[in-house]
Amino acid sequence: MRTNMKTVVLNVCLVLGVMNVAEAGIISDQCDWTGSGLSVSGGRSERAVTPVYLRCRAGSVSWLYPRGALRLSLRPPLPAPDKDFNLCIRVIRRPDPPEFFTDLQFNDTEPGERFPARIFLEGARKLVPLYAPDDGDPREVRCVRSRRGRAALYVEAEPELDARRRVATFKYEARPLSTQHYDPATADCRPCSDSELELAFCTSDLVSRVMIVGSEQREDLDTTQLTLRLTRLLRASAPADVATSHTLHTPDLTQDEYYRYDGDNTLSQSEKSQQALHAHVHVWSGCGASAGGGEFVAMARRRLGRLALVCAPRLQHWRRLVELRKNASDAHCTLHS
Fold first, then answer.
1. Contacting residues for 333 by C-beta, under 8 A, at least 6 apart
2. What percent of the chain has pLDDT over 90?
3. Structure confidence at residue 241 (pLDDT)
4. CB–CB of 152/122 below 8 Å?
C-alpha cells in the first residue's frame, strides 16, 4: 500500500454498533454476490451495513446503486483452511476487453469511470484503507494478507451526488502464501519445470502456440501486458461471465466467418480476411517479460478477469516433452502440440 493514501483509522466495534444491519439479510456460501442499495428501505439506508459471506477462492461482487456499506467476510476453501492467505481485489472501472481480437490497434487503457466506493481491510481494532477513488494510486489491483485464515472487507459507498446509475464492481482472489506442490495459480517468474509444464497444459484456460509480437507496461494492473499472435489454438475455455462480456471485437471461434477449426485445431484464415487472431496475457511487472522471436506454447489462466501467463516454453522444448510423455501412464491429460 502506498504511503500517499490517507490514513483512516476507525474502531470496528463502533462502526458496526452505530450502523444498522440491512434488511437484505445475510448472503452466504457463494462465490459471487450481486445486490442493490435500493433494496435497503427506510430513512437509515445510508447507515445500513449488509453482511455478505463469500466462501470461494475467487469471485466477484457487484453492488448497484451503492448505499451504506457492505461487510464482506471471506474464508476460502484453501488446502490449509486455518493458514493465512493473500487476498487480491481488482476494482472494475470499465468493461473488461475481449480475450481475443483481430485489430492490433485495439487497447483498453482509456480512463474508466470513478469507482463509487471506498474499501477497507478489517483489522483487530481498526479499519485499514485499501482503496479509495482519490488516493492517488493508479493501480486497480490491491493485495493484503489474511489474519488467522480469515479476511473481512468493509466497502463504504460514496455519497450520492445525482440520480445517475452507479455500480461498484470488483473481483477478488485468494491464494495460498506458500505451497509444497505446484499450483499454476501461484507460478512466479522462474521457468516452469517439465512436471509443471504438463500440469499447466492440462489446467490452463488458454493453451495456444503463439508468437509474442508486443509488450506494454500496465501501471493500472501492475503487469506487463504481452500481445500474442495465435498460430495454433490448442484449448480455450469460455469465461464464466461470457454472456455479459463485451463482444464487439470478439470472434466466435467455432462460427466466425474469418476463422475455423481444422481437424488439428489449427486456426486458419478464410479468403475473406488476412487478419490474425491475437490475445493479451499478463505477467507480473517485476518479471521483466518482453516480446521475443520464435514460437512458444502459451499457457494462461484467468486471474481477476484477465489472462495471466503461467508457462510459455519454446515450441521445440514442448515438443520434446510431448514425445517423452506420450505413453506415460501417469499423465494428467493427453499432451499435444
1. 201, 202
2. 43
3. 56
4. yes
